[in-house]
Amino acid sequence: MGLLLAGALRDVMLWAETPAAERAMLFSAHGARAREEQLGEAVNEPDLWAPLFALALLAEEPMEVDLPRLVQACRRIASWADAGGKPGTRLAFVQASALLRPHDAVLATEVARLSRDRGETARAESWFRHAVRLARKRDWEAYTWAYVGLGVLYIRCGNRPAAATVMQRALRTAERQRVPHLLAAVHHHLFHLSTEAGLLRKGYEHARAAFDHYGAANPAIFGLVADVGRFWLHLGQAARALPLFAGAVDGIADPNVRAMVSANLVRAAAEVGDRDRYELARRHTLVMIEEMVGRSRLEDTYEALAYGDLALGEWERAAESARRAFAAARAAGNREVELTAETLVERVRAHASAPAPTGADERAENPVVARQAERLAHVFASALVGASV
Length: 389
Known about the structure:
By secondary structure, this protein is mainly alpha-helical.
């Protein structure tokens, strides 16, 4: 099956990258017959047979192509790969779709996002900027999402000044177009940028604005609540964060994000000294890790487990979690988590307690900001109770 998919992808890419006037002689008659004969391999994959047949026709009649059908075939193969946990194949066929429709900013943004989540930084940046160029003055929503995606990429790379620049541009566009879900997403990411820069009051304002624009009935609030909870863990506010993770974890649809949030529930339980809840949440998290699709968020998940393991002196568990966090971070190109995991490994070797929350001294809450945080926690807790009814 792998050779069949590789051959189909090669044909599509060759056709897409060849000028229209030169496509007639791209494929030999023998090659076209070979493609059709190989389709027998797809009999056991009914979701693949029809799209692969559509791609096989490309080699037979390269000048009489039904382009929408060709794009749809690539999209269906990408969906099959996604369901089967094959992120590389998914990315390859989404990119093929984008090359077949070179003016589609939404497809370009999808290629960029998938590349980013696989740790392919240069490829992701190139496609995000390509999407911005395609969407400018044509599709303001796609334009905003491309800048948001680029900002997330810069955050993960540790380039916060660049992230702030593109996120502010996304915010201005979203405000000008008055699209609530765009405003929510941009404020959500600006929460991250502001708090990481030590601007806690501004960060909490962005979190509240994101909540208001999402609306209490929007499933996206679970991700927002969990992100705020993670920040509070970094501040050493595990007691404040614990109910947020407990309330959010079951409402998150993405299996990778759900596993990461569950791991942070493990950490929060450990840091407040609730061993029973730590053990139960840890068992659930390990099951969720097995259900993750690809490697996205894997490094964050194991990092949170390592912190929780360390907090209760579970040295062997902590060593394994930290090693897995390091390996996943290196594979994803997440330098920040990679460095943290190295520190955690050293702590395990020294049988030292968990390191102080990252940046806690620089980002400590003053009394006014602490009250703001408590009000935000109350708003979130009320929303989570309402969502569970």
